[in-house]
Amino acid sequence: MPEKTIPILPCQSLPPVLEFYTALGFEVTYQQRSPNPYAVVERGGIELQFFAMKHYEPTGSISTCYVLTDDVDGLYQAFRAGLKAAYGRIPTRGLPRVGPLKDMSYGVRQFLMTDPGGNCVRVGQRTGGERHHGPAPEETFARALHHASLLADSKGGAAGAAKVIDRVLRLTDETPTRLQLLQLLVLRADIAARLGDEETAATAPLARAAALDLTEAERDQARDALTRLEDLLAASRP
C-alpha cells in the first residue's frame, strides 16, 4: 500500500473550520465531539484533520501544510466560487482569507489560504523541474516584484514586502511598465489589507490600479493580478 501523509492541524473551535472547508467543497467524513474535539474533511485526494484546543489563538498560528495538485487553477476557481456563495465575497483579510493565485520563482503556481483556525494551506502545481529559487531579475521593477512577492508569502514578511514596493514606486528616474505597475499596486493593496492598514488598502493603490488602461494582451498577461484586484475592490466596498 502506498504511503500517505495527512496533516493534523489545530484550531480553537471546530464549527467555523468545518463550515469553511464545507464551503470549499470538502466533506466532513468524521467528527468527534468528546472527549477531545476532532474532525476530518476530504475533497478528492485531499484529506485534512483538525483538533480543537479551547485556549488556542488562531491569529498567532504558525501551522501550515502544502497541497500539491495538477489543477491549481481549477481548485482556485472552485474555492473562490464556494467562498463567494458562503460569505457573499472573497475573504481577503483577517480569518479566514484566500490569497492570490500566482507563479512563483521556484517552479510552482500557487495560492495560499488561511482557515478560521489560523492554519495556512498552500495549494500549488509544479510548473518546472527546478525546486529552488531562480536568480532575481536584474531589471528594477521585476526585481522588486520578485522580492516583494516572496516576502509577502513568508510568515512575518508582509511589512518588508510593503517597504520594497513603496521604495520602488517612489523612484523618479525609472518607470515601470503598465503591467508591472498593476502588479505592484495590487500586491501593495493586498499587503495593506493583511496588515490592517485599511487606509492604504482601500484608497491609492486600488484606485491607481483600477484606472490603468491596459491592452488586451496586457490584460491576458495580468489575469491573476486583475482577479485579485476585483476581490480587493469588492472587499473595500461597504
Description:
The chain is an alpha+beta fold and 238 residues long. The strands form 2 sheets. Strands 5, 6, 7, 8 and 9 form a 5-stranded mixed beta sheet that branches. The mean pLDDT is 93. The chain is globular and about 65 Å long. It is built from 9 helices and 9 strands. The protein has helices spanning 14-23, 72-87, 140-152, 158-169, 178-195, 198-202, 204-211, 216-221, 223-236; strands at 8-11, 27-32, 38-43, 46-52, 64-68, 97-98, 102-103, 108-114, 120-126. 43% of the residues lie in helices and 19% in strands.
Q: Biggest β-sheet, characterized?
A: 5 strands, mixed
Radius of gyration: 19 Å
The total strand number stands at 9
Q: What is the beta-strand fraction?
A: 15-25%
- Outline the low-pLDDT stretches: none
Distance N to C terminus: 53 Å
Going by helix content, strand content and strand pairing, the class is alpha+beta
The total of helices stands at: 9
Helix content: 40-55%
Run of helices and strands: EHEEEEHEEEEHHHHHHH
